Structures are given as C-alpha cells and as structure tokens.
Amino acid sequence: MLDILDTGQAGAKEKLATILNRSSFDSQEQIDVVQDIWDNIQNRGIEAVLEYTARFDGAKLEQLEVSQTEIKAAYKQVDQDFLAAIQKSIENVRKFHQQQLREDWMDIKDDGVILGQKFEPLARVGIYVPGGRAAYPSSVVMNGVPAKVAGVDEIVMVSPPAKDGSLNPHTLVAAAEVGVDTIYKIGGAQAIAALSLDLAEIKKVDKIVGPGNIYVTLAKKLAYGYVDIDMLAGPSEILVLADQDANPKYIAADLLSQAEHDPMASAVLVTTSKDLAKEVKLELEEQLTNLSRAKIAKEALKNYGALLVAKDMEEAISLTNQFAPEHLEVKVESPFSILGKLKNAGAIFLGEYAAEPIGDYVAGPNHVLPTGGSAKFYSPLNLDDFVKKSSIIHYSKEGLDKVKDQALKIAEVEGLDAHANSIRVRIED
C-alpha cells in the first residue's frame, strides 16, 4: 500500500512533488464549466440558479430560502447529545476567537498630528457549507462563529440540498445555534455566483468563506473582485512529524482521519525512525479493515500518502516546513522544544493526545486552514477575515510644516504637480 522511503531517495522527492502539486486549479474543462454557470446566472438570474439546482442536486425547488418551520422541524430530528455537543463546540470556538478582537487605536503627537486605525465588521458575509448526502455542522460553526464575534450584521448560509429539497437537520440546527440570519438551498458554483452577483432575490454579500469542491473553489476564484473570499482551499492534508518514541497506533489513526475525506487527500509521516515507519504501515493496514470509508482512504494513501524517514530531526523539520501542511501533528518527546522551528503550518497539534479531529470539532481554533503549501503565506480563518480596517490621519499646521518639504520633494520626483499644489496652497495660505 505504502512504501517506506528515505528522504534522500529520488523517489521521496518525486512523491513530495506529486503531493504538493495535486491541488492545482488549472483544469481548463472545469474552469469552462464554472465560467458558463457564472455567465448564465449573471444573464438570467434566479431562474438559472433553480435550473442548476435541479440539474446538479436533483432538487426541483420553487423556494430557495429555508423557512422557520423547517428549522423548528430540524430540532425535532436531532438528539439532545448532538445539541449539547454543537453548543459546546460553539462555546469553545467563540472563546478562542474572542481573544482575537482588536480595538481602535490613536497615536496623539505633541505637534497636533493624530494617527490611528479603526476596525469595522463587514456588513454581510456568505458562508458555504458542503451538503447533499453528507452533513457538516462543524463547518457552520467554524465559519459562522468568528463572523458573529467580529460583529458581522448579517450572515447568509448556502448549502446544497438533498434530492427531496431538504437540508440536513444537523446542519440547520447548527446554523440556528450559531445565529445565521438567512439560509439558501443552493450548492456548487451556482451558490457562489448567487452570493456574488447581486440578484434581485439574493442580495450580494461582501465576502464568501467556507470550503467546497473544485467547482466551488474555482467559482470563488472567479468571484474575487466582485466580493472578497477567504482562501482557495484544496483537498485536506496531514503531516505527522514523529520520533522513535511516538505511538504508531495513534499516528495511523490520525493519518486515516484525513485520508478518509477524499481520494485527493494527503497523509504523510515524516520520522527519524525506520522502525516506527514500519509499525505505522502495519497499523494502517490493520485499521483500514474497520473503516466504512476504507476504499476512499486506501486510494488517498496510494496516490498521496507517504512514509518518509529523515536522517535526523533537523532534516525532518526542514522537510515539514517545505511541505507547509494544513494539519501538522508533532509527536516527539518534547514537542514544545521544536515549536519555534516549525515555520509553516495551518494548525499545529502538539503531543500524543492532540488528535487532529479534536481541532476539527471542539478545541476552539478554526478548522478552515490553508492547504497545498499555502500555509507559507496564508493563515487559518480568523477574526480579521470578517473585519475591515480604516487608517485615521489628522494633521495640524505645525505638523504639516514639519513634513512639507519631504512631501513636496516626493511629489516633484513623481511628476504629480497637483499633489504638490495640494500641500503648497496650505503652506502659502
């Protein structure tokens, strides 16, 4: 199933390159499909949205908005244990993101110059939640709660319906508990277009957040400029950095927790111990036999899984930083001792008991994370994604006198006479 490769081998470098390049968004066929959907909705509006919902989701709907009656019915379909679990998740995610709140600030100088910054929440945000046959209430929590904490006025959720026109009751209950204002039964690229194009029936949002399939991701790429987006997220991935004392059973379980997502998901072990790699391989084979999604996980491991053995921890850390994984688990004797050396990762899980799914559901940090190496320049979804900033500039005459010569010189070099004149008329007045 998986070969154990030394990092110095050519095969290891080729495998790493294959994994890192797996989520490119350059399929012209898929781009053309998304562009056609976008153009059709731009020209025909909600009629086209309804047609795509019938074609792709098999749901023939007359009303896209979820009613309060449907939400009340959803509460009757979920058990109390789920309700308690989602409420705990919301509480923890809220507490974590409240730590990210920022206050307006002013720097008042002696010469009357005042500089500062003010923070304002976005007015209207759209969150995309995958759906159809599956339920992802955790996505509702991770996208909706930080928007609420930031003070967003209106949260609009879109999610693809089942063939009978319903949304999963667990997703609806999560949305109600988070405080989502409006929910539409729309999925795919058509949902992104509907939130971006200011249709008569669906008001345009300021920003769209949330993960989806390749068509959703390409539509978000197309939407950027019409609205803001969080990031272009690719298939899920995990890298486990481990030494010889790590628990192979835990590592295999965590690798499989990501491999079961999607055939394009990546699960990689980087270790300094060949013996550990052998034990993890045996554990993977054994644990796979008990998984309901074993076929998906097996395909992901075959195509984008790897068991890599580094010559020492320094090389292992260097390889980890090069990979820049979405989820990074650190299973070494003293994980905090190397934390400062880990430069690129979406979320870092330290120690034997920090299982990645805990981060997905209840720990508190956001599970919407950069993928495909983009952790080198992107951050997890956070409060700043739902806030815009304005600079504040106030100058007194004394303050202007101090900087006028420098400002005039720069305007002169740039050949912008009106810029210079704007300053000069105040000096001469």
From TrEMBL:
Keywords: Amino-acid biosynthesis, Histidine biosynthesis, Metal-binding, NAD, Oxidoreductase, Zinc. GO terms for molecular function: histidinol dehydrogenase activity; NAD binding; zinc ion binding. Its cofactor is Zn(2+). Transmembrane segments: none annotated. It holds the Pfam family Histidinol_dh. InterPro entries: Ald_DH/histidinol_DH, Histidinol_DH_CS, Histidinol_DH_monofunct, Hstdl_DH. Binds 1 zinc ion per subunit. GO terms for biological process: L-histidine biosynthetic process. Substrate binds at residues 236, 258, 261, 327, 360, 414, 419. Signal peptide: none annotated. It catalyses: L-histidinol + 2 NAD(+) + H2O = L-histidine + 2 NADH + 3 H(+). NAD(+) binds at residues 128, 190, 213. Its EC number is 1.1.1.23. It is an enzyme of class 1 (oxidoreductase). The keyword NADP does not apply. Zn(2+) binds at residues 258, 261, 360, 419. Pathway: Amino-acid biosynthesis; L-histidine biosynthesis; L-histidine from 5-phospho-alpha-D-ribose 1-diphosphate: step 9/9. Catalyzes the sequential NAD-dependent oxidations of L-histidinol to L-histidinaldehyde and then to L-histidine. Belongs to the histidinol dehydrogenase family. This is Histidinol dehydrogenase.
